[in-house]
Amino acid sequence: MQLVQLPANLPAMEQHPPSDFARLRRKPQRGAYDRATIHAIIDAATLCYIGHIIDGRPVVIPTFHWRYEDRVYWHGSAASRMLRANAAGGEVCLTVTLLDAWVLARTSFNHSANYRSVLCYGRPSLVEDANEKLAAMKGFVERLFPGRWDRLRPPTAQEIKATSILSMPLTEASAKIRSGPPMDNDEDRSWPVWAGLLPVHLAGDPPIADADVVSGQEPPAMPA
Amino acid sequence: MQLVQLPANLPAMEQHPPSDFARLRRKPQRGAYDRATIHAIIDAATLCYIGHIIDGRPVVIPTFHWRYEDRVYWHGSAASRMLRANAAGGEVCLTVTLLDAWVLARTSFNHSANYRSVLCYGRPSLVEDANEKLAAMKGFVERLFPGRWDRLRPPTAQEIKATSILSMPLTEASAKIRSGPPMDNDEDRSWPVWAGLLPVHLAGDPPIADADVVSGQEPPAMPA
């Protein structure tokens, strides 16, 4: 995927030292702050949850995101409260979570989940330049459906104008991961109940073609 | 599922009139405020995202939730920043989203997703009473794995004490739903690209039994 005119000169550091705010307090052994881990989790997720402060109150909006280099992008309508809050320079927290398995233990207390999550904090900025916006829109489509952008009816100037794109550097971010079996106390392991993992994943169902699809056109794969 | 000692005297109203804050501004035709719709979406989701304001900054934490009557519950460690923020009477926004399908249109602009989401705002309160807390813990396990609670090693007083349970009334909530095919402009419908829905759902993979599981024990079904 080729994105043009996005800032590309990133520092060579491979590790973001966590800020005091981003550093995990609970179960710090599950934490990770290296760029490769954070990027991989962000890339594996399509849906994110963005927390804003609007009129002094927390508001969490689900939306889709994509990543280019060390920035995360999302889009919205210029008319939305979310965009207005962002345009005012407000800070956000963007959170993604991939649920990997239910973790069933012998006690309710030791039940858990295997997951990969990232929280990143920052102040998003609007992508103002029309060419940069177009590149970002292409990046969004191509991240979900590789090869689709060039097959679509190209966007009009009005459509580009009506789309707002935000981006935020991944400089203040943390990952949190749990994997592995349930952690029961030794004395509980012989309790007569099933224990282990129930893995889950997001699966695709058969595509449903829209009316009037031109014959011979095939659906793309579900986003991975 | 039987939960004891939780407040049960709810007003008979079937419709929460949306507060000005909770009322949808963007695409209001996708909004719903009736209790049945809001309950059904909350019940269909297991993972929620709770937005807090901590040190003046938005923080979005993923966690699991469950519902009893017109309240939503979640749990956490008494030592967490999230719990400390809640104990200080802070307001939260609890958001759930079920992704139902990718919506592929003939233009990037008209791509969308089918989803069901709920945002609810409020000030959570700690479940303080030990019996009420036990009932809520049972409600959580039974919501995920019906019949499992009575098969587990019962919780100790220490385990109950170490678990913090929060709840919040669903009085200031809104649902937002998109369903149906892509909405392309008439003049785009003959564009030669596949368009339609790619439905998705959370699917289970084969269970992975823990070491030492007592023979004859079978795994429960994945939470629905």
Q: What form of chain A results from the Cα inertia axes?
A: globular
CATH fold call of chain A? Pnp Oxidase, Chain A
Can you say what the CATH homologous superfamily of chain A is? Electron Transport, Fmn-binding Protein, Chain A
- Please estimate the helix content of chain A: 10-25%
CATH architecture of chain A: Roll
Write down the secondary-structure element order of chain A: EHEEEHEEEHHEEEE
Provide the low-confidence segments of chain A as ranges.
1-14
Strand content of chain A: 35-45%
Largest sheet of chain A, in brief, is: 10 strands, antiparallel
Structural class of chain A: alpha+beta
Q: Give the count of structural domains of chain A.
A: 1
From the N-terminal CA to the C-terminal CA of chain A, the straight-line distance is 15 Å
Highest CATH level, the class of chain A? Mainly Beta
| Rg over alpha carbons of chain A | 21 Å
The tally of strands of chain A reads 11
| Helix run count of chain A | 4
The largest interface is: A-B, 96 and 94 residues
Mean pLDDT of chain A: 88
Oligomer: homodimer
